[in-house]
Amino acid sequence: MTVMVDRTTTVVWDRALLDYDMGEHPLNPVRVELTMALARELGVLDRPGVRMVTPEPATDADLTRVHHADYLDAVRHAPLDPFFHGWGLNTDDNPVFEGMHEASARICGATITAAEAVWHGTTTRAVNVAGGLHHALAGRASGFCVYNDPAVAIARLLDQGAQRVAYVDVDVHHGDGVQAAFYNDPRVLTISLHETPLTLFPGTGFVEETGGPGAEGSAVNIPLPPGTGDAAWLRAFYAIVPSVLRAFAPEIIFSQCGADAHRLDPLADLRLSVDGQRAAYLAMRDLADELCDGRWVAMGGGGYALVEVVPRAWAHLLATVTGAPIEPATPTPMPWRKFAAERCPRATIPETMTDGVEPAVEHWQPGTTPDPVDRAILASRMAVFPLHGLDPHDPRD
Question: What are the two backbone dihedrals, phi and then psi, of residue 53, each rounded to the nearest 5 degrees?
Answer without folding.
Answer: -125, 135
